[in-house]
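Run log // design_07
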């Protein structure tokens, strides 16, 4: 890959699976245990905010017990490689990419480590639990802080930046995502229209596997470091 190359990487829950964070749609995944309509939609939050806060409180607490794996570290190393443009887009709301050293990172579905005030719109780094009456540090009103996570039906973050990077990229690599949810599932189409080489690195073929020019299937902690080594050594 020439040093002048522009690279966009997309990751999904599968890259964090080997770090011990459940995926959504695999056997025994999160959506087989809880209905996404109850905990990942604005309607669910309006119906039962306590249930939603607790769902994300449990996932936020879980971050303390997990570590980035070799796939996260490989992407941080790739970012430091000799490329003109690099953007890592993640659908994940965990902080494993940051903890592995990634910096050029866009959390399109938000972050467990951030809370959003629906009264004043301020975002706050957040480590602890959220309840129905947690006051906002900025406007001091109680009961308006929600998880800073993009729910079904809401618009993802960073879309202008992501679409601009896709429209000029030479290489698009999709890692650990089932290709179920738009707009992320459509990124490969934008990259192909830009003439980019498109690669899927996933445990098994995703919904959109036929759209990719190259596909490697296996565990992210094995196939991602191997793929990155090839890019960095020109092999
Ligand atoms: P969508 O149509 O893009 O996705 C709906 C998805 O829900 C389907 O692709 C399917 O995978 C999933 N789904 C449907 N029935 C399900 C079930 N019973 N159990 C589990 N999953 C099920 O969603 P939308 O309502 O059009 O919203 C799209 C927007 O929501 C996008 O902006 C996307 O980024 C955002 N989003 C956020 C989250 C999140 O939890 N953070 C999840 C999905 C979508
Ligand atoms: N290595 C590589 N890929 C893996 C591994 C692994 N060890 N384990 C699982 N996978 C793959 C699965 O084969 C699957 O294709 O990761 C993918 C996980 O798919 P999903 O569970 O659907 O997760 P994701 O694609 O990230 O979901 C997208 O949906 O519910 C929303 O907001 C949520 O961001 C999420 C979005």
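design_07 sequence
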């Amino acid at each position: 890959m020439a040093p002048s190359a522009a690279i966009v990487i997309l990751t999904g829950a599968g890259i964090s699976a080997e770090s011990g964070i459940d995926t959504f749609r695999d056997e025994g995944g999160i959506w087989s245990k809880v209905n996404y309509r109850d905990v990942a939609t604005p309607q669910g939050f309006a119906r039962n905010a306590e249930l939603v806060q607790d769902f994300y409180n449990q996932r936020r607490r879980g971050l303390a017990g997990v570590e980035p794996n070799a796939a996260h570290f490989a992407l941080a190393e790739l970012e430091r490689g000799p490329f003109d443009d690099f953007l890592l887009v993640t659908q994940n709301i965990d902080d494993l990419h940051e903890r592995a050293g990634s910096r050029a990172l866009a959390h399109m579905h938000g972050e467990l480590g951030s809370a959003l005030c629906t009264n004043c719109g301020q975002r706050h780094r957040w480590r602890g639990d959220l309840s129905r009456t947690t006051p906002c540090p900025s406007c001091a009103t109680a009961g308006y802080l929600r998880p800073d996570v993009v729910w079904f039906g809401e618009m993802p973050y960073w879309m202008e930046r992501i679409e601009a990077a896709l429209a000029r990229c030479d290489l698009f690599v999709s890692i650990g995502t089932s290709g179920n949810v738009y707009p992320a599932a459509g990124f490969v189409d934008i990259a192909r229209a830009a003439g980019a080489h498109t690669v899927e690195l996933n445990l098994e073929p995703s919904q959109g596997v036929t759209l990719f020019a190259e596909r490697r299937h296996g565990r992210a902690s094995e196939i991602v470091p191997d793929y990155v080594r090839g890019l960095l050594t020109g092999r």
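The longest strand covers residues 110-117.
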